[in-house]
Specification:
The chain has about 150 residues and is an all-alpha fold. The chain has a domain of about 100 residues. About 85% of the residues lie in helices and about 0% in strands. It is built from 5 helices and no strands. Helix 1 packs antiparallel against helix 2, helix 3 packs parallel to helix 5 and helix 4 packs antiparallel against helix 5. The longest helix is centred in the middle third of the chain and has 29 residues. The protein starts with a helix and ends with a helix.
Length: about 150
């Protein structure tokens, strides 16, 4: 179990580092993040009801990392032109709402019963995947709009 937590933490950090790596093209960064997201999604599927508390704890860490990345993306947007800011703010707000929804879903996962565990976990996983995809699209958009 500790190995899974370590692996997912490493994946999250790797995704962050990949996002900061200027030597790779944006397309290479996106492919790397997609691969890592698929691996993290597979790890999510492996949690049983008995491991519910570990799942919730681990996903809280993932959400914290995602929120940190959103804060960094927001800072990058804030240092851009007014036109980029105006266009980016609704996208960023939508991502913040998605992460808030994920927090609510994670609270549901913590309260899940054995009979509802699989559906709650699956719902969280779908929401997490959608949020990560949205974040990747936003990062791509910012990369296209703001020249380094």
């Amino acid at each position: 179990m500790k190995n899974k937590i370590l692996a997912i933490t490493c994946l999250a950090l790797t995704a962050f580092v990949v996002g900061c790596n200027k030597e790779q093209t944006t397309e290479q960064q996106m492919e790397s993040v997609k691969t890592q997201t698929k691996e993290a999604a597979q790890d999510m599927k492996d949690f049983t009801y008995a491991q519910k508390d570990a799942f919730v704890s681990q996903m809280q860490g993932q959400l914290a990392a995602l929120n940190k990345n959103l804060d960094e993306l927001s800072a990058k947007i804030d240092s851009s032109s007014d036109a980029v800011k105006a266009e980016a703010k609704p996208k960023l707000a939508a991502l913040r709402e998605q992460t808030a929804k994920l927090n609510r879903q994670l609270a549901e996962a913590g309260n899940a019963t054995e009979s509802t565990w699989d559906s709650v976990k699956s719902g969280f996983q779908k929401g997490y995947d959608a949020t990560v995809e949205g974040f990747n699209q936003a990062r791509q958009w910012v990369s296209d709009k703001i020249q380094p």
